[in-house]
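note to self: dont lose this again. the chain is below, predicted strucutre after it. 199 aa total, dont forget to put it in the shared folder this time
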Amino acid sequence: MIAYLQGKLIEKNPTLLILEVNGVGYSVNIPVSSYASVGEVGQTVKVLTYQYVREDELKLYGFSSHQERDLFELLISVNGVGPRVALGILSSISVEDFQRSVLAEDLDVLTHISGVGKKTAQRLIVELKEKLGKVDLGIEKAVEVKEGIGIPAEEAVLALVSLGYNKLDARKAVQKANSESEESLPIEELIKRALKYAK
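---
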């Protein structure tokens, strides 16, 4: 498995890169979301990759972040979602917004993604909701900035997750518990209060 490539960027298109590594030119398919951040032609760049191997197909897919690659791998694990649809999803919606939409079961957002119909959207929710609740694809960081959640709260969220709660539900419960008190609560008290709100 090729985990990443580092070399000279020879050609750059919104959905394809040509990367020269030690005299070998690699064709790497990318989502549009990676295009702007991957670097410029002539520069030495590093691209995270996923090597897709099937009987009749061998392709490299490239990403500018671990979150994008992780989501790509989750997407192609869904029945009926291949690399082309997965790239389309990554090109149409941010990792954080996709994760939020699946966790919230928001069919309207998902069906507005190119190549995703109602059946595919329902399949994405059914097959990925639990998995997305257990992995960090960036949504936690985004919520942290927005909500101002601190280190004790993060530890409380992890404690609830270790008890079997969904990460998004755990985060909401901790935020509610936090809002009850004007002062920062000790971690033990925060967990106790959050358990009252955890679903």
